[in-house]
Write a structure and sequence with these properties.
Layout: E1 2-6, H1 10-21, E2 25-29, H2 33-40, H3 51-60, E3 64-67, H4 70-75, E4 79-82, H5 98-110, E5 115-119, H6 127-138, E6 144-148, H7 158-163, E7 168-171, H8 175-184, E8 195-198, H9 200-231, H10 235-243, H11 264-277, H12 283-306, E9 315-319, H13 334-344, E10 348-352, H14 357-360, E11 368-369, H15 373-377, E12 382-385, H16 397-403, E13 408-411, H17 418-423, E14 427-429
């Protein structure tokens, strides 16, 4: 099957590479000459474990290529995915669908036979109807079926998520389009991947509802962590205790500095705006978004409090910048707000992240970029774990104790055991637990 992926960003690139790995013939199209040129030279614009190897393998096998020529690619395609960005629109928070509609018009002008056009981008309810209207009004003679097929990829584990999905949601009432989508995902049948067919509007809402629920779950355990600190309980044990209830589940119950990334902040805001437009406000989601925004700055104040309430002129070492490990994505990363809070308080901030420093340089203020954990910890008054990269989990604490000015660690991801911190002589400030003092 010949598949075209419009948009070679995170979703388009991962999805296109995985579909090619299934054996489909895939062309990834993008409007950026620099990006397409880099991809054709084997340079991957994002960091995702295993993606560079998969792309190289499928390019060599002749199943995957990259192009600027949308019209030629689409002309012979059976299925065209729209995987362009839908950022929050400036001023009101609604999803900006201008790229989606522009892609739809270009696709419709280029198709030559019956074609399934699939929205892979995260779009609000009713977007598929508008795309269909564009096709009907501007290209009435074209045979096009519009399908919703939202993505559920976790950055850092996207390939596994695509190839071993919990579910594949397909929104369409057109039986011919459904059969074609079954063929697209037929290689997954051995994994018994559940294809879930529903109406297009329902499919569009499933994506937003899922992300909003997970954001709410993260925010719940973060608030429980604050309470645990006040009453002397352990949030990790609380999370385990409630997570053993199958109605709740253990995932997304890890307390931390707040959620970030390309999906949760943007999607919760877009869902809130959609609900308000339809006079059906989502109070729980509105509160979730507000609490998460406040939490990030509160984590900055937690660090200041760990330094006796004053960080002016003090060296604060920050481990991890990206919103989660195994990605270079800095979008809405808690580290940005935390660091700004520290800078506002006069701190001398030194940072290190295995993959995110290039992207961070456009977002952070006057900070010093280091070459590793021990580099930035040297002579530091406080070491802060913001992102739980694996390489931070087994640090040489006797060495840190020797090189740091003050043995203070603020562990915003709870990756260190309080008893170990006491053993090595550190004052340890975890999330949702008692502080371990010397």
């Amino acid at each position: 099957m010949h598949i075209v992926m419009i948009g070679s960003g995170y979703v388009g690139l991962v999805s296109g590479a995985c579909l090619a790995d299934f054996g489909h013939r895939v062309t990834c199209v993008d409007s950026s000459p620099d990006k397409i040129d880099a991809l054709n030279r084997g340079q991957i614009p994002i960091f995702e474990p295993g993606l560079d190897t998969m792309i190289a393998h499928n390019r060599e096998a002749g199943r995957l290529d990259f192009s600027l020529d949308l019209a030629s690619a689409v002309a012979n395609a059976n299925v065209v995915f729209i995987a362009v960005g839908t950022p929050s629109r400036r001023g009101d928070g609604h999803a900006d669908l201008s790229y989606v509609y522009a892609a739809a018009r270009q696709i419709a002008a280029a198709v030559t036979g019956f074609t399934v056009v699939v929205t892979k981008s995260t779009v609000p309810v009713g977007t598929g109807d508008e795309i269909e209207r564009i096709f009907r009004d501007e290209f009435p003679d074209k045979q096009i079926a519009v399908v919703s097929n939202p993505e559920f990829l976790r950055e850092g584990a996207a390939i596994s998520d695509f190839k071993r999905p919990d579910r594949i949601v397909i929104g369409s009432e057109d039986e011919q389009a459904r059969e074609i989508m079954r063929e697209v995902y037929r290689p997954l049948y051995l994994n018994e991947a559940p294809l879930y067919f529903c109406e297009r509007r329902t499919s569009e809402l499933i994506k937003y509802a899922g992300n909003a629920f997970l954001a709410m779950k993260i925010t719940f355990i973060n608030e429980m962590a604050d309470l645990c600190e006040k009453v002397g309980a352990d949030v990790q044990k609380v999370a385990k205790g409630i997570g053993m209830d199958k109605r709740i589940g253990e995932k997304f119950l890890h307390a931390g500095p707040g959620y970030g990334g390309s999906c949760f902040p943007k999607d919760t805001l877009a869902l809130i705006k959609t609900a308000q437009d339809h006079d059906s406000p989502l109070r729980l989601i509105e509160t979730t978004a507000a609490i998460n925004d406040v939490r990030k700055r509160a984590m900055g104040r937690k660090i200041i409090a760990a330094c006796s309430g004053d960080v002016r002129g003090r060296k604060i070492a920050i481990l991890g910048l990206t919103f989660k490990p195994n990605t270079d994505d800095m979008r809405d990363a808690p580290a940005v707000t935390i660091i700004q809070t520290l800078l506002d308080a006069g701190a001398d901030v030194h940072v290190f992240d295995p993959e995110g420093m290039k992207a961070a340089s456009a977002l952070l203020g006057p900070v010093t970029y280091g070459h590793g954990a021990y580099d930035i910890a040297d002579d530091a008054d406080c070491l802060v774990v913001v992102t739980e990269w694996d390489e931070f989990r087994a640090l040489d604490f006797p060495r840190l104790k020797t090189i740091m000015k003050s043995p203070v660690i603020v562990d915003l991801r709870n990756i260190y055991k309080p008893e170990d911190m006491r053993k090595y002589g550190f004052t340890h400030y975890p999330i949702g637990k008692r502080t371990s003092t010397l």
